[in-house]
Amino acid sequence: MIGFAAGKLGGTAMNLLLRHRNLTVAEARAEIEAVTVEDLHRVARAVWADALVQVPGRAVDWAGLTAAPAASPEVVTGRRYSAVEEPGVTLIVGSDGISVVSPGNQVTVRYAECSLLQVYPDGARHLVGHDGFTMTVEPTLYGITAAELAPLDAAVPASAVVRMPPRDPARIPQPDKQGGAWSGRNARAVARTVGFWLFGVLTVVLAVATALTVFEETDHEINPQGADWGVIRVLVLLAGGCVAVWHHLFRERRKG
After folding, report:
1. Which long-range contacts (CB under 8 A, 24 or more apart) does 247-253 make?
2. Of 3.30.310, 2.30.29, 1.10.4160, 2.60.40, which CATH number belongs to 78-171?
3. Order of strands, edge to edge, in the sheet holding 97-102?
4. DSSP reduced 3-state for 182
5. Residue 181 has pLDDT above 50, yes or no
6. CA-to-CA distance for 207 and 35, rounded, in angstroms?
């Protein structure tokens, strides 16, 4: 009896939540015995008609099922907002719908075919279309204002709108400022590396050119008129400047 009571615990709790009457053992047995094969057949057909099957990496068209769409067939026409942190991701707000387009994918929810619109006080919008496609619009991630989302709020049927309570500020996504700072540091590091090698090569080239010029200018057989020290001084100054810049970049790279 203890095992039987424990088995009924889940059903009893559900009946309590739904305010349904708890059946006695005899009543439950009578309901089960009243189910016919025709009842099971009818329910099975109803389930099959609306079933969504998820299988690992194989088609089930042999069973009469067609693949669910992975993307919307079209996008709306309207104003575009680029994602702050995701290159290639664009939010499009149109007069009849809203789309999010990313490389290789696109999702559209038409206002007239919106099953649910969750509106958050911080400006975020979460939409669910009749076809099951969903999208979340975070103003902080697209740089869009409440006024620019006005067409969406005005066109979605009022019966589909649900006003949500304020979110914990920690749950509101923000652009990654540290990521931007890292990008700046990374760019400077790349610039230092390029400059380090560029001035290193220039230093070697100028050093070789200076050595060859000194040899030619001081060789009386090649240049019987005597050395042109002006040219040599210019080459020495250029080589010295490249050495100084290269040494500075070398120290900066070692610092990180």
Report:
1. 249/192, 249/195, 249/196, 249/199, 250/196, 252/192, 253/192, 253/193, 253/196
2. 2.30.29
3. 78-82, 90-94, 97-102, 105-110
4. helix
5. no
6. 98
Taking Cα atoms as reference points, which of 177, 80, 78, 164 lies closest to residue 124? 164
Residues, the chain, total? 256
Supply 135's token pair: 């999208």
Residue 96 CB contacts under 8 Å (≥ 6 apart), including other chains? 76, 110, 111, 112, 155
- Quick one: average pLDDT of 24-34? 87
Which tokens sit at 30?
């009578």
Across the chain, the runs of DSSP E, i.e. the strands, are 78-82, 90-94, 97-102, 105-110, 114-119, 125-129, 134-137, 161-163
At which residue do the structure tokens 């009818």 appear? 42
Alpha carbons 99 and 101: distance in angstroms, whole number: 6
pLDDT tens column, 121-138? 999 999 999 988 999 999
